[in-house]
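Sharing a chain and its predicted structure for anyone who wants a worked example. Both blocks are below, sequence first, tokens second.
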Amino acid sequence: MSDQIRISAKNLGALALKGCNMEVIAILRVVIVPLFLVYFSGCSTVGQIPPDNKKENAPSRVAEIIDWAQGKTFREVIEYAGQPGAVDIKNNSMVIQYCSTGFFTDKYVQLFLYKKRVVGSYQTNASIAEGWCSQIFPSPQWLNAPPVILDDIGLSIK
């Protein structure tokens, strides 16, 4: 019985790594596991648009919201896409923003609303924050707004 090894959860890992330098294993555990987690967390979608939205016809990614939201009311956008990450209001015009975190760059979409109805959008890719894109949003790009909004906020070019 003394020649047999009793296998338990505690010594199972030691058996699998028998003959390996324990210092190397400790370094791998400290370095590889965090790198693995960081690598895969950068690929997840965050922000206010859930990746698996269960509502019918709802957008699941930032890129899809541009076509989906055109003509929708503010309430419809909020019901389907969730609370925006940033909001800016001038006169009767509003910009609401959503984002999606990527590995190298983040995707941001700005929806332009006039009298609480989506009349246009602007999408950009940027790396303005380390971590989740919802930590910070770019300034609204009012100059990329449709003419009705430019007239409303006094930026129309005539």
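Comments welcome. Confidence is low (pLDDT under 50) at residues 40-48, 50-59.
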